[in-house]
Structures are given as structure tokens and as C-alpha cells.
Write the C-alpha cells for this entry.
Amino acid sequence: MQRYGRISLALPTVILLILAAIHGSLLRAQDAPQGPLVPPPEHHVTRIGNVSEPEAPPSLPEAEIVKRFSVKEDEYILARTHYTYRKTIRIQEFGTDGQPSGEFVLVTQPGRDVDGKVFEKVVERPRSTLQHLFLRSEDLEGIQRIPAFPLTSSQLAKYDLKYVGKEQVDEVDCYIFQAKPRGVERVKAYFDGIVWVDAKYLEVVKTYGRWVTDQGDVHAMANLPFSMFETYRENVEGKYWFPSYSRSDDTLNLNGEQIPARIVIKWTDFKLVPSAPQAPATPASSARP
């Protein structure tokens, strides 16, 4: 089976129903006036009919599938620290005609300070044509705190994971699991949503959900409503599934006016960071007689 480098959007109705039942407010943004929900051209959306019961369970025990993909998540979270990439954050407002009326674009890439700590370095001057919002690059720093790999092996004990069905996304057969935190805390956020797992290689290729604390939904930016994110991964060097595209649609409420808005985050140009050359060993000096 050929391994595909990118997973396209495919959110079946059954998954929407599951999330709506869990959260209640999930479809809030869809009920309000929205911008066009047609996805960008690099993705293709397909919808399938309602499924009242999960399909036949996978051949492997569910616990074994979860264990295996969580180990892969451990591997990916470590591997990504050895890569650089270009991240483009685009926030759009939509007018009454359903067309974008303004946008804010920020481009960053990971860098390291003198102590080796990773930070996001702005590589292009932010540009904005937003009509209703004033944003600065520092306003988007909250996005950096959203974990890219929520279900690592060290976190599994804090979640209930339930198999809910199977779906083919592009050419990849996937198991679908619902992830729900067993408890919530004040200072630590937990993922609440759905994951798609490659049925052959047992790797997470797509997620859809939000992060929650005991205070409610975590918003990536304090003054913006985005909390539900659909995230797709790209296969890098045939070994790692890294997030490559994430999107959220919601509505801004400003002075009684409802303004459809969207955020899209893209990670591109993944490149392995060359290892620092090691200094040659100094030969031991010969002892004098």
C-alpha cells in the first residue's frame, strides 16, 4: 500500500453527532452566519451517511491499537524537535457576501536561544487588512502552547478512548477513536475530541477537537473565539506524521455585530536540522620520561 504524504478533510456526519452530543455547544459556530465553509483547494471533503452503531471492531484489540499509536506519538514529538519548518498563521474576517473582507498573516519558524530553548522566530513582517480586529504577533503566542501530539503514552491514563468506527481518508484506511479526559484541572489542559489512526501502520493522521480545563474551553488567543480545531498531518521523510494543516471556524461578537472568522495554520518546508559537528578529540600528551 502506498503511503500518502497528506491526509485530506473527511469529517463524517457520525463524528459530528458524537461531538455535538459530548459538547452541546460544538455546532454553535455553524448555526451562526458563517463565511464560506468550502475547504481550501488542497483538501477534498466527503460526507457519509449516519451510522448508528460502530462498524465491526478492528482485528487487533482496541487497547493494543491505542498503545501502539501512543508509542508512535512519543517518537514523533521527539523527532520534530530535530526539524525546522515554516509556519504560516492566517486569520480571516468575512463580510456579508461570504467573501474574505480582511486578513492577518504571520510567518514564523522555530529558533533556539543561547540556552538552547526553542522559540518561534518571526521571519516575515506581519501584515494585516483586518477591518474589525487589531492583532500583533505577540497576540498569537498562545498558539505555541497547544500540544501537537495530545495522546502520548505518558498521557493515556488520563483519557478514556473509545473505538467508534472505521473510515477511509484519501487512500488510507483509518480507525476512529473518541478521546475524552477522565478529569479536568485548573492549570493543565486536556484534549477532548476525535483521532483518526492509520489502520495499517497505527499512526495518528488526523485529529478534531478542543482543549479543556475545569474553566471550560481553552482558546488559542484570549480575544478570539477559536477553540475547535481540525488538524491534518503530513508524512515527513516516510517516517513521521507531523501536523501540517489546522483550521477553526467561529464567529466574532463585536459590539453586537456577528462577524464570521477563520484561522488556518500551515506547517511547510520540513527540513532536518544538521547535527552540530563535534570537536575532534584532543590526543593525550605523551608523558615525559
